[in-house]
């Protein structure tokens, strides 16, 4: 600032600097890209000090030097390339080493400095340097303003530049934390993707194994066996089918713990008739979509197979009739019914084990089981949502 500047001009300049500093702080603390913050800092610094040139030097501990990482007014080959030794042989090195602001009114008269050639190439005569601190470890670097005029910077400029460097230091720390967070999130995304891939592979393998077992069991139904053996093979095959269908519906869902139970029930009803080969008995299905956890869906799937099996075996002595599986859902509860228009349910001696399993599974998922035998049989399973 020149000595003949009026009080009004000084006040106006200070207010302009305060406003620029506030705007920069608002901008910088919203940014996560460090280069963007540094480029903006260099521009604002030069404008506020009414100079054409400014630069930010970042300390590199491995090389113990200061690299120009951002700047205003410099020709190509300076920003990103020019370096200074971080010691007393340069103004920025001395500021970094001492931690105190350094003003050089005329570098041509300063015999103690060894400066890079780009200073003379740009006609730089005076400089001012302040430290950009760091919350941990060595300082980030140095903020410098440069001028082609002799004795261009005074105490007011030093104070402004020091305050600006303090704000910049906080912005640098914030950007560094944001970059670490982004890197951590990216690593977590990779780990999740790897786990989902492994989960999909496991689902595929388990699914294929269950379908293989199911195929072997259904093949046994076409060979010569006594009645009890056929019943046993079919019962096991139906339970394996219920499990296999769960994994069919898991494909493409990664590590999901839920499936669309309505789609699952519809798929079960599509496959079950093939185990009985009863042309006179129809299996009807009407479902609404609802998402259930895998454990509950698997348990209810086995319940459906057991009750459908009982209907096929005992409800139609003449081999003619209908079985219906209906799933209704509202805001508070889910109703699952397995009904038939046959002769009505009689829990025969050889079926007690199957019905005991049904009751136990319904109880495990927190549901209630009831039977209506008005016309045929209707098993009603009710669950709170």
Strands in their spatial order, largest beta sheet: 3-2-1-6-5-4
| CATH topology title of the largest domain | Beta-Lactamase
Order of helices and strands: HHEEEHEHEEHHEHEEHEEHEE
| CATH homology-level superfamily of the largest domain | GAF domain
- Tell me the span between the first and last alpha carbons: 75 Å
Largest sheet: 6 strands, antiparallel
List keywords for this structure.
385 residues; alpha+beta; Beta-Lactamase; Heat Shock Protein 90; 2 domains; six-stranded antiparallel sheet; five-stranded mixed sheet; 9 helices
Protein architecture, described:
A hairpin with a 4-residue loop joins strand 12 and strand 13 (377-384). It is built from nine helices and 13 strands. With 385 residues, the protein is α+β, with helices and mostly antiparallel strands. It folds into two domains: 7-185, 2-Layer Sandwich (Beta-Lactamase), CATH 3.30.450; 257-384, 2-Layer Sandwich (Heat Shock Protein 90). Helix 2 (34-48) packs antiparallel against helix 5 (155-221) and helix 7 runs parallel beside helix 8. The two termini are 75 Å apart. It has helices spanning 7-28, 34-48, 91-98, 117-121, 155-221, 227-250, 261-271, 294-314, 352-364, and strands at 53-60, 65-72, 83-85, 102-104, 126-132, 141-147, 258-260, 281-286, 291-293, 321-329, 333-340, 368-372, 377-384.
